[in-house]
Write a structure and sequence with these properties.
Layout lengths: L1 E2 L5 E2 L4 H4 L1 H4 L4 E7 L2 E5 L9 E5 L3 E7 L14 H11 L22 H10 L6 E5 L5 H8 L3 E6 L2 H14 L4 E4 L11 E7 L8 H10 L1 E12 L22 H5 L4 E12 L9 E10 L3
Helix pairs in contact: 3-6, 5-6
Bound molecules: S-adenosylmethionine.
S-adenosylmethionine binds next to α3, α5 and β8.
Amino acid sequence: MRHFSDGELRPRHRVRHVATALNRPPSCRNTAHWRGGRHTIAPESSGARLGVVEEGKSGEVAMRSESDNGDENVNGLQSVVDYFDVQYKSEMHYWWRQDVRYATDPDSFPFSLLTQMTLRLIAEQRPGRALDLGAGEGADSIRLALLGYSVDSVEISNVGAMKILRFAADAGVTVNVEVADVNDYEPAGQFDLVICNGLLHYIENKAPVIGRIQDATRPGGLNVVSLWSTYTQVPPCHAIVPVFCDPEDGVVMGSYRHWMKKLVYFERDKTESSHSGPSHSHSHIKMIARKPD
Ligand SMILES: C[S@@+](CC[C@H](N)C(=O)[O-])C[C@H]1O[C@@H](n2cnc3c(N)ncnc32)[C@H](O)[C@@H]1O
């Protein structure tokens, strides 16, 4: 760590890359180390926006961002990175605000059939490797780490990624966190479980991303998927970033036609309760599927 004249601590190596998700320089990949304390995620250039997160213990985050759109807005819309950076800075826990967020007992999740069923299904197998794509603030990742999984978390928001590190340390577990755009991300090796919770409606070209997820799943492994469907329109409070919902019989369900479905359901026009903001509803595709042996 380096101490700067403004009193902040910043990672020692290639600081400009630490700003990846805030400033998004083209094509970069780096690994930076943090130790406990208050760290500013900031580029060295003046006028940069600062993202400050509190962090409890040491951690490591590998950073990569290759195909996002810089600070320009697309069609007058905010970028997904900017949007989630702001949300994740706004509250300690933007997602999973219940105290049970890291509970490993399925009955702790009467409000989420997907989480409940995931926990019941993985109770039947030994913990192995898990990949959490679009990991947000890391609730799924940390819960799996508590269950003994070796977890790789991928998140495009640098602020979210830092919160995963901090919350994992608070929970006494380690999670490997990478700041990356899943559109470019190549999973390393094979996973027993891949979670893709709330990510795919932010991905326009879903087929190649799903293809890489499926390739990275070991035979017999599980994919857990949740995304917004086109059954209802994206509510105005979310239609401020590019969103690409999928029909209930669209690319996502089609991509899993040869996989064994352990759970599939379509939530339609369900009131959102997992984050704060104006009252609104979403329609979802939710699925747990097992890769054929
Ligand atoms: C709806 S949130 C879900 C967070 C988390 N999975 C959960 O359930 O608590 C979607 C997350 O996907 C991330 N995301 C969106 N597009 C992404 C991309 N192209 N690559 C990686 N992460 C992305 C967002 O930053 C956000 O944290």
